[in-house]
Backbone:
């Protein structure tokens, strides 16, 4: 069973992901939560799949260019797997984006994470998403 | 005062309730959080009162037949009572349902829980709800 | 690094703030989370700045007179600083108010807190807010 320290470290990592995404500029903060070779898979919500720090950077450069404001509220945190130096976690997310063109979207989705323990702490190795409530 | 282990166990149990409710099928997962004799009391939001695993099953069979998608985001978790082998907890919930008929509803409510420690871990003995923001 | 006990104590304090705010009456519960000399600074969302228990009381007397219902969902809790007897924390908030005049508002914002350890537990010494998604 995962220790409380590891649980909290993972929860903090996931929250710091949303904090960086919602800063509208902090790509370094986003990359800091991902392993170098991480897979960032948004295909479950129709937004493509991105690989490694380079892929994540490209995605968020585009996102920050397009949007003026974000809010990503994580709820319902759960550790769904643990094997010492690897773990899996799930949260829900209420994800909001307002575009520079004035449009806006709110999604209710599940965030899934595979993680591994590194010398620099827990890092996300794979992140994927599905909708709780599909848009439209 | 409740231990961190018990606190986390209760929080995980409550999250697993929403996870099962939002699976749109996992009635066993829902029953697993309730004591055999639990009271599931939705009368505070005008939706009736259900008793025991049989009552909870009947309620969710109806819910899953009527709805295509759910999202129940828990926030503001608090332990509100503790006496060794019993405890009480409260969360807020943002509860969303989309009906198979195309309708939808979002409620902002408080979830209340009485729990007891069993050989199979903490179980809910009574669950009731009131609105933070009444609909309409 | 902050202990788990202190982390949980601070998280519970912040949740109890929202619980009291959403009770629509419990000004004593609100004051209990603030240091006597606390600064309650809503200037970041255009709603003024209030000082000490007297200032906080005045603000919430007005709020409770104007509104019939509240919901303040905290998400994305993070400890952002710790120095033994002082700490800083941040949450997100989905803040909803329904006015007695029938109007309503929902805001998505960041809550920031400076805290200090007192003989009566952790207390907020400064609280301020900025918008994640500006209204309108």
Residues:
């Amino acid at each position: 069973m995962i220790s409380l320290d590891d649980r909290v470290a993972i929860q903090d990592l996931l929250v710091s992901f949303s904090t960086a995404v919602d800063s509208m500029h902090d790509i370094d903060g986003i990359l800091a939560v991902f392993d170098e070779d991480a897979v960032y898979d948004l295909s479950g919500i129709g937004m493509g799949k991105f690989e490694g720090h380079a892929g994540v950077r490209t995605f968020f450069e585009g996102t920050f260019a397009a949007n003026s404001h974000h809010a990503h509220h994580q709820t319902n945190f759960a550790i769904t797997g643990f094997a010492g130096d690897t773990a899996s976690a799930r949260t829900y997310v209420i994800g909001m984006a307002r575009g520079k063109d004035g449009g806006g979207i709110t999604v209710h989705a599940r965030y899934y994470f595979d993680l591994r323990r590194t010398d620099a702490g827990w890092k996300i190795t794979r992140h994927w998403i599905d909708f709780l409530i599909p848009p439209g």
Observations:
- Helices of chain B lie at 4-23, 27-31, 52-66.
- The mean pLDDT of chain B is 97.
